[in-house]
Amino acid sequence: MDRRSRAQKFGATIALPFSVSQIDCQHHPFTLTLDNHTQIHTKAIVIASKVRYRKLLFEHPFDNTSVYYAAVVPLT
């Protein structure tokens, strides 16, 4: 079973990338309005701006899986 099928099995929605033109965080669930005027309701929003991904310098059990990891460094 490929990753897309596994994700959909657990209720994930696969969507093509669109630009978000508006975010409403006043009510829960949050509402995103896309540039094609579609609205999406979501429990969480992750904004990754100017992200650079780097792999760890050693092998670990998350390589080549559907598990992702990250470190967050505050900008000063």
Main features:
76 residues; three-stranded antiparallel β-sheet; single chain; mainly beta; extended; 18% strand; 9% helix; 1 helix
What is this structure's SSE topology?
Layout: H1 3-9, E1 20-24, E2 30-34, E3 39-42
Antiparallel strand pairs: 1-2, 2-3
The gross shape turns out to be extended
- Cα gyration radius (Å): 16 Å
Helical content (DSSP H or I, runs of 4+): under 10%
- The H-and-E topology, N to C, reads as HEEE
Low-confidence stretches: none
Main sheet overview? 3 strands, antiparallel
- The counted number of beta strands is 3
Question: Main sheet: which strands, in order across?
Answer: 1-2-3
Helix count, per DSSP?
A: 1
Distance between the termini: 44 Å
Mean pLDDT: 77
- Please indicate the percent range of residues in DSSP E strands (runs of 2 or more): 15-25%
The secondary structure category is mainly beta
Write structural notes for this entry.
This protein is mainly beta and 76 residues long. Helices cover 9% and strands 18% of the residues. It contains 1 helix and 3 strands. The chain has one helix at residues 3-9; strands spanning 20-24, 30-34, 39-42. The protein has a 3-stranded antiparallel sheet, with no helix packed on it. Strand 2 and strand 3 (39-42) form a beta hairpin. It is extended, with a radius of gyration of 16 Å. The model has no long low-confidence stretch (mean pLDDT 77).
